[in-house]
Write a structure and sequence with these properties.
Elements (H helix, E strand, L loop, with lengths): L2 H29 L5 H32 L15 H5 L10 E4 L13 E6 L4 E4 L12 E2 L6 E2 L4 E5 L2 E7 L4 E8 L5 E8 L18 H11 L6 E3 L3 E2 L9 E4 L10 H4 L4 H12 L6 E6 L8 H4 L5 E6 L7 H8 L8 E3 L2 H12 L6 E7 L7 E6 L4 H4 L9 E5 L6 E3 L11 E6 L51 H5 L6 H9 L3 H6 L7 H10 L6 H15 L1
Parallel strand pairs: 1-14, 2-17, 12-13, 12-15, 13-14, 16-20
Antiparallel strand pairs: 3-9, 4-6, 5-8, 6-7, 8-9, 10-11, 10-15, 16-17, 18-19, 18-20
Helix pairs in contact: 1-2, 6-9, 14-15
Length: 548
């Protein structure tokens, strides 16, 4: 049942319970011969409330049917009464044209250390591709290069023995200086020392107007572009034997300290549009762009004027920018459907295969966090060395370095490399200190979703983050916190318990196919029980995937 309908019926239940109470009160008043005018007044108020609830449920039903028919479900013309949206929902910005979704659940975490433009050149010499970044790959893929080999950007480095058609390529030209191994001889990374002047493997891209889908897929598999496509459910490399229902691209990110994608994509409009054209030939449905309706001004024309795609505007707090949330409100994933997702910069990389005839892995990365001397944007390539990205910029030795954002990123170090799909590095204080009295103190400096902490009363407060857990894991109690921050018609707490009990039927029924780790990261932040929800969810996804 739709979440808004459930809320409506819950309110009706309360109203009818109150009506029953009033009837009992009126009967008692008449028995005592007292004045019933007060009871009559209350009864009139309740009738008005009941009328409004019935109207609201009816209006929601109309909008659900409109959405199924492909209409703009937030259009005031579809409301039961004119101007309903203006009174009871966030007003749609004037620049928004077309489908619009105003999300009510969510929470923004404002942290110190936001990156500022303009974009600067990064002095990075070593880059790596890490097989563990590609979910489901064999621990020991087939490596096609040796230490000492010279490669061009776009040359093959390795492939998965279970899926040899998908080639993983070098982001830069240079010399292969290391093939690092991890546990049980697994391949941890293949490291390339970059040339001062980049050399590119020449690619003969097919004509998009005349080529078949099969020819296009074959080219992307060989050129390295296929690794940029991910499939849901399960968030794995897209299956090139399948045709997705739709392909989704989120053009904004609401995670803490996330990069401004309008700035990131400056100057790459032609490649981005060409990438969208490529994606359009790969799906039997549509390519959908999730557009940002939170600002006072419209997003970049690169996004708003993109051609040949469906567009849906989203307003609301984090995780409004998550592509999983956007999929849920545009065309939810079912047990029988698959969709693909692509990051914004990766769309431009795919497009460059056609506009430039080469694998251009150029990437703008946001260096963020309060433990940096200067938070900034830098231009580099995929897989850049973390230590070289942060060279001379660390403000403290007692810092946690994260590839990604603070909610769903992965802990790393200066010896490691930027993860393949990441466009952000976050550096925060290591929380290896004891807090006297802990949560008992009325702390203004701790980010939280709980109204018990005074800091939440000031929504524009910017916090200095650290990694302190503020307590230890405890009993997994039902609190309703997850539903308050996840704008999806899913009960995440019940889903997590179904995963822990290995109940496959409940996992599917409770919506596990629609989620990946980043979608429940905010729930994990809000969790009173301090449960590792992202790990639990991944365990569940792996279980379901293996049983399929």
């Amino acid at each position: 049942m739709h979440l808004s309908m459930r809320k409506g019926f819950n309110r009706l239940h309360l109203v009818f319970s109150f009506l029953l109470f009033l009837q009992l009160a009126q009967a008692q008043s008449q028995t005592g011969g007292g004045n019933s005018s007060f009871t009559t007044l209350l009864l009139g108020i309740v009738v008005l409330i009941a009328f409004f609830i019935i109207y609201q449920v009816s209006d929601n039903l109309v909008r659900i049917e409109a959405k199924k028919s492909g209409l703009d479900s937030e259009d005031d013309a579809l409301a039961m009464m004119p101007g309903k949206n203006g009174f009871f929902q966030k007003k749609k910005p004037a620049y928004v044209k077309g489908q619009y979704v105003a999300l009510k659940q969510g929470h923004n975490i404002l942290l110190e250390g936001e990156a500022k433009g303009p974009v600067q050149a990064a002095n990075v010499k070593t880059f790596a591709v890490q097989p563990q970044n590609f979910r489901g790959m064999s621990p020991i893929p087939k490596v096609e290069v040796e230490v000492g080999n010279t490669v061009k950007a776009g040359d093959h480095l390795f492939f998965d023995k279970k899926n040899p058609d998908v080639k993983y390529v070098s982001p830069v030209s240079g010399e292969v200086i290391a093939v690092n191994r991890g546990e049980r001889r697994s391949i941890a990374s293949i490291v390339v020392l970059a040339d001062n002047q980049q050399q590119y493997r020449s690619l003969n891209a097919p004509n998009l107007d005349t080529c078949s889908r099969e020819e296009l897929v074959s080219f992307l598999l060989d050129a390295g572009g296929w690794a940029l496509l991910r499939q849901r459910p399960f968030d794995v490399i897209a299956n090139h034997h399948e045709v997705p229902e739709n392909i989704f691209v989120s053009t904004f990110d609401t995670a803490p300290l996330a990069p401004n994608l309008d700035l990131v994509m400056e100057g790459r409009g032609a490649a981005f549009q060409r990438g969208l054209d490529v994606l359009g030939k790969l799906t039997k449905g549509r390519v959908w762009l999730g557009l940002n309706a939170n600002g006072d001004a419209a997003p970049s024309p690169i996004f708003t004027e993109a051609a040949g795609v469906g567009k849906c505007w989203f307003s609301g707090k984090h995780p409004a920018g998550n592509v999983g949330v956007q999929i849920h409100h545009i065309a939810p994933i079912t047990t029988k459907s698959t969709v693909w997702t692509v990051n914004v910069q990766d769309v431009a990389t795919i497009g460059a295969l056609f506009t430039e005839g080469k694998y251009n892995a150029e990437k703008v990365v946001a260096l963020t966090g309060a433990e940096l001397k200067v938070a900034k944007y830098v231009r580099t390539f995929t897989g850049a060395n973390i230590g070289e990205l942060l060279d001379g910029n660390l403000a403290s030795d007692n810092a946690r370095i994260i590839s990604g954002d603070v909610l769903s990123g992965i802990k790393t170090s200066t010896d490691n490399y930027l993860n393949f799909y990441d466009d952000q590095v976050t550096v925060v204080e290591e929380g290896n200190f004891h807090e006297m009295f802990g949560w008992l103190l009325p702390d203004l400096a701790t980010p939280s979703v709980s109204k018990a902490l005074p800091g939440t009363r000031f929504p524009d407060t910017v916090f200095k983050a650290n990694t302190n857990m503020h307590g230890e894991p405890r009993a997994f109690v039902v609190t309703g916190q997850y539903e308050e921050v996840l704008p999806m018609d899913i009960y995440p707490q019940h889903l997590m318990k179904a995963i822990l009990t290995n109940d496959y039927e409940k996992m599917e029924g409770l919506g596990i196919y629609e989620l990946i780790e980043e979608d429940v990261a905010l729930c994990e932040f809000a969790c009173t029980s301090k449960q590792p929800l992202q790990k639990i969810l991944r365990d569940g996804l792996d279980m379901v995937n293996e049983s399929a």
